[in-house]
Specification:
This protein is an alpha+beta fold and 396 residues long. The chain is 35% helix and 11% strand. The mean pLDDT is 96. It binds fe (ii) ion.
């Protein structure tokens, strides 16, 4: 492999790993140890788990003589890889006061040094074998970078002191009002999925044809102000807009507004953000919705959610992409001909393909350059703590 390639991989690795460290810079050791809820993980666990990933998928198999920093970490920081044996229970990650944050940061430093040494010294054939796992590890860490932010927001939202993750030097610029415009698509036979150059996760492949009826997609996501009208029209009290499972969830949880919204009748109405408590920006995309709420809003608005294929086929004509993840009406299923990656990485995506819905587009918390128009994010339909909103679709 040519040296510029080693250099490029080395600097990409350094940049991604440094970004994780930059993200946790505003946090105390206590902030990084606590787990907000079973679905979320402590920051310290994210920092260690992404490190364990490189150690397990790259250094141990490909670096001769590599000795793990601490063999006990394999149990603590394995997330869900059954082929690697038993692991610490996910809901108890917040109980891990040991290893300390300092020990986890030292773990990162040790693995970074070993990985960089490997990138510069491995013979070309070994590096070629290890390269897919290194690249996967970088994209994996970027996914966890967004999770660090969603999880710290979930944590801070539970603290009556309303901690501020990022201090604003001036008020946030307000979103510009815009009338809802539509992007028309003729449909027909269109190709979806990833093909060709560049990284993609296995779940984006193989590229294949789908048949779409004519449709239109809103050029921008639904705004907070539009969503407020749904609330004020009694949307959370009207079962006719909701899927049965969603309505049961509304009853059980007492949902009456997006997660993190405060009393909407207050002046100004506020929501809790990474910048602390902030006035709601009525023209900004509504965020922190479950699939159920997105679906109910779309029904109330006389529209529907797009399928992931409608979204992908029209993505070149859409605006305000990358502000909020956009729920689609598509179940997270394998594409025809899907084959999981081989080895340990076979557990990365495929085994989660049941009971989850696809989200497209990326959010403001998604690391730059991480997303693509074929990218498939996925969460269970009741999930609210992600940066997720919606964009309307209609048949034409
Ligand atoms: Fe992970």
């Amino acid at each position: 492999m040519p040296d510029p390639y080693r250099q490029s991989l080395s600097s990409q690795y350094a940049a991604v790993r440094a970004h994780s460290r930059a993200l946790v810079q505003p946090l105390s050791a206590e902030d990084q140890c606590v787990q907000a809820m079973p679905d979320a993980s402590p920051t310290k666990w994210h920092l260690a788990h992404t490190t364990w990933f490189f150690e397990t998928l790259v250094l141990q198999p490909y670096m001769p003589g590599y000795c793990s920093v601490d063999p006990r970490y394999a149990y603590l920081f394995n997330s869900y890889y059954e082929s690697l044996g038993p692991r610490h229970a996910r809901p108890e990650r917040g109980l891990l006061t040991r290893p300390s944050l300092d020990a986890v940061l030292a773990y990162r430093d040790a693995v970074d040094s070993a990985l960089q040494a490997f990138l510069h010294s491995a013979d070309a054939a070994t590096l070629a074998l290890a390269e897919p796992a290194i690249v996967l590890g970088l994209h994996h860490e970027q996914q966890h970078q967004e999770l660090m932010l969603t999880d710290i927001l979930a944590l801070f939202s539970r603290n009556p002191m309303l901690p501020v993750y990022q201090v604003l030097s001036s008020a946030l610029a307000l979103a510009q009002p815009s009338n809802l415009q539509w992007h028309f698509a003729a449909g027909g036979r269109v190709a979806v999925g990833h093909a060709g150059e560049g990284f993609a996760f296995d779940n984006e492949t193989p590229r294949h044809d789908v048949l779409l009826r004519p449709y239109r997609l809103a050029k921008r996501p639904v705004s907070c102000g539009e969503y407020l009208q749904f609330i004020q029209d009694g949307g959370y009290r009207a079962p006719r807009w909701w899927l049965s499972e969603g309505w049961a969830q509304v009853q059980r949880e007492g949902w009456c507004a997006p997660l993190y919204w405060r009393d909407v009748s207050a002046k100004p109405a506020q929501h809790f953000t990474l910048f602390g408590l902030q006035p709601l920006d009525w023209h900004a995309p509504v965020c922190h919705l479950s699939f159920f709420e997105a679906q109910a809003y779309s029904a109330w608005a006389g529209a529907r959610l797009p399928t992931e294929f409608e979204w992908e086929a029209a993505s070149g004509g859409l605006e305000q992409l990358g502000q909020v993840w956009e729920w689609t009406r598509s179940s997270y299923d394998p594409y025809p001909g899907f084959r999981p990656l081989s080895g340990i990485a076979s557990e990365y995506n495929g085994k989660f393909m049941v009971g989850q819905m696809v989200l497209r587009g990326g959010s403001r918390a998604t690391p730059q350059g991480h997303c693509r128009n074929t990218y498939r994010n996925f969460f269970p339909p009741a999930t609210r703590w992600q940066f997720a909103g919606l964009r309307l679709a209609q048949d034409v």
